[in-house]
Write a sequence for this structure.
């Protein structure tokens, strides 16, 4: 009886967890918490200060770099949709690989209409390349 009970508690917990796990929801929440103060709530950017991350050619052309960019930040000159930026973005060393993966998913799929994002294993491999 005890084991049946624990099996059902375990499967209920797994089911709940399964329903809760929506990459784009966590990605959106993380974006609101960590990114929108600069990149704005729909990722549209802010004038010449902060580049857009929604409908942004830079994002689509640098898909495999996004995970590292989020983790380590970026500085120096870059061009997004024809506009030059010479700002500096700090890294986010506090984010886990799963959180970065969900953020990349949200940015690619929801903000840039890409059909699919990366598996967590691919994000891990990308992050391996820019480990400090
Ligand atoms: C304090 C302001 C600030 C915050 C917070 C911030 N960024 Fe940035 N971000 C910038 C600036 C400034 C640049 C341009 C850097 C440069 O000119 O080299 C940039 C560049 C980028 C780029 C590449 C250019 C583009 O727009 O496509 C991406 C992608 C990006 N940020 C994503 C994020 C994500 C995801 C987060 C949250 C985890 C985030 N940023 C948080 C300021 C910020």
């Amino acid at each position: 009886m005890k084991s049946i009970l624990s099996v059902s508690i375990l499967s209920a917990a797994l089911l709940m967890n399964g329903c809760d796990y929506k990459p784009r929801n966590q990605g959106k929440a993380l974006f609101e918490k960590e990114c929108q103060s600069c990149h704005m709530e729909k990722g549209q950017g802010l004038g010449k200060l902060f580049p857009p991350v929604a409908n942004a050619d830079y994002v689509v052309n640098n898909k495999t770099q996004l995970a590292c960019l989020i983790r380590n930040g970026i500085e120096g000159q870059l061009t997004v949709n024809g506009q030059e930026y010479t700002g500096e973005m700090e890294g986010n060393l506090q984010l886990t690989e799963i959180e970065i993966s969900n953020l990349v998913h949200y940015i690619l799929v929801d903000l840039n209409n890409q059909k699919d994002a990366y598996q967590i294993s691919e994000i891990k491999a990308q992050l391996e390349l820019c480990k400090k």
Q: What stands out?
A: The pocket of heme C is lined by residues 34-35, 37-39, 50-53, 56, 58-59, 66, 69-70, 74-76, 78, 80, 85-89, 92, 103, 107 (CB under 6 Å).
